[in-house]
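User: quick one, fold this
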Amino acid sequence: MSSAAPVYMPRWEWRTFAPRADARLKGHLGTPVLSKASAHETSILCARSKHDVLIRGEVLRLKWRKQVSPSGLELWDLVLSEAFPCSSEVLLRLFDAWVLPAPALDRNTYSKTQFLGEVLPQHLELKPIEIETRSETFLLDGITCELTQLTANHVELESFCIEHEDPALVLQVLHHLGLQGRRNTSYPQGLKAAFNLPPQH
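Assistant:
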């Protein structure tokens, strides 16, 4: 959707949320290959939408849930990645994803502060969540897995994610970890549950 978006292959994803990952899971993960220091991001939740809108640093991102497989895996595609200031045309694409009427946009471009302070308040259904994250990346059978500690509006959460372009490999790791009985919960769905917003399936 955006000519400025980086080259990105859609990936099949499986994710779970928990207050703390159980010891059995951590025992299977081994040593992380990468640890990321605390980072700040803003997730913008909308009960009507199943897609993922996130501001990380000065970059606005929209990940689109394109498909759900019979096994429950979700195919996500990064369709928008724009640095602020963003044009009004870019912002209008978000409201299509949120299934909301277009707001009044009086500027040609918007800074992050203007977007959060002037545009979002026009729709009470939009809930920005301030998040601090600290993540560790693991490789299992050559597949990337990420364990992330989140503090979302002062609520402590933990998320574990497996993702790859090949859904069969995601399922292979899922079975290896004994997690196939757990429900796949996307990033926006997990946050909605934490803040008592109805998830969109």
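User: anything notable?
Assistant: The two ends are 23 Å apart (CA to CA).
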